[in-house]
Amino acid sequence: MSLFKRRRFPVPIILLCVRWYCKYGISYHDLAEMMHERGVNVDPPTIFRWVQRYAPEIGKRVRRCQGYRSGSWRVDETYVRVGGKWKYLFRALDKHGQLIDFMLSDRRNTIAAYRFLRKALRTMSDYPPSSITTDKLVSYPKAIQRLQKEGVLSNDVEHRTSKYLNNIIEADHGALKRVIRPTRGFQRMATASATIKGFEVMRMIRRGHCGLAQRDVAGEIRLVNQRFGLAA
Questions:
Q1: Are 61 and 227 in contact (CB under 8 A)?
Q2: With 0-12 CB in 10 A as exposed, 13-18 as middle and 19+ as buried, what is 78?
Q3: String of b and e for 108-136 (b: at least 16 CB within 10 Å)?
Q4: What is the C-alpha to C-alpha distance for residues 55 and 123, in angstroms, rounded to an integer?
Q5: How far from the centroid of its chain's Cα atoms is residue 17's Cα?
Q6: Which residue stretches of 64-188 are H helix?
Q7: Per-residue pLDDT tens digits for 172-221
Q8: Which stretch of DSSP H or E encloses residue 37?
Q9: Phi, psi at 75, each rounded to 5°
Q10: What is the per-residue pLDDT for 99?
Q11: How far apart, in whole angstroms, are the C-alpha atoms of residue 99 and residue 69?
């Protein structure tokens, strides 16, 4: 496969390392030790490069299997440390907890909210929202109004501000951060975004949001391998 050209390790080993790192929230050093116990001598920087290259690719291929998303969106932001500074992670889920989209940003303002919502709408062009629930950040109404004026977002979309309705995404932030914590912060926005994409997609797979025929570890492995043409 051209995607893995010049890699000296077999493709299944590479995908295994990327899956485990993104699924279990372990350090690169610990994962390298685990692979050594299995007779695979790979160092932490190599696994890091694999995650940066292939976690987004897994995300892109697996999300094609995600299927229907509810039009009731929950949008919120949380914090992630990048380069020793706190950055904003915008995230959107539907009312069932399925991922809509995410975006890292230096700022938490109207421009950032607009960029994120526009990105999410582009990602979910087949499943546009009927309602968007946010916190009371004043940036969201302005961003939504701009998108409606531009015709990107329907004027019929209801904007709600309800902490109760957003409990689902606030709880999900905590679950995501438990996976992020072992990274002890990212060095650059690009590497943070690529890694978080892997975390998000593996969490989707584990929760059965990708149409798994077999809801267990074997089914997860089969899904990822099939996306890369490795299994029947």
A1: yes
A2: middle
A3: eebebbbebbbbbbebbeebebebbbbee
A4: 18
A5: 17
A6: 110-123, 139-149, 167-180
A7: 999 999 999 888 779 999 999 999 999 999 998 888 777 665 667 888 88
A8: helix 28-37
A9: -120, 135
A10: 92
A11: 8
**Residue 158: beta bridge partners?**
131
Encode pLDDT of 116-128 as tens digits: 999 999 999 888 9
Residue 48 CB burial class (10 angstroms; 0-12, 13-18, ≥19): middle
- Using only C-alpha atoms, the chain has a radius of gyration, in whole angstroms, of 18
Distance CA 40, CA 167 (A): 43
Per-residue confidence (pLDDT) for residue 69, from 0 to 100: 82
- Report helix, strand or coil for 129: coil
Q: Give the start-end residues of each E strand in 54-204.
A: 72-82, 85-94, 99-105, 131-134, 158-161
Tokens of 141: 């109404």
Closest CA to 51 of 90, 78, 25: 25
Provide the whole-model pTM: 0.90
Long-range contact pairs involving 163-166 (C-beta distance under 8 Å, separation at least 24)? 163/135, 165/74, 165/133, 166/74, 166/75, 166/76, 166/133, 166/134, 166/135
Report the SS3 class of residue 123. helix
Q: Which amino acid is at 203?
A: R
* Eight-state DSSP code of residue 3: G
Contact 78, 172 (CB under 8 A): no
Segments in the chain below pLDDT 70: 1, 211-215, 231-232
Query: What angle in degrees, to the nearest 10, is found between the helix axes of 44-63 and 217-227?
Result: 80
Where are the extended beta strands (E) located within 18-95?
A: 72-82, 85-94
Beta-bridge partners for 88: 79, 105
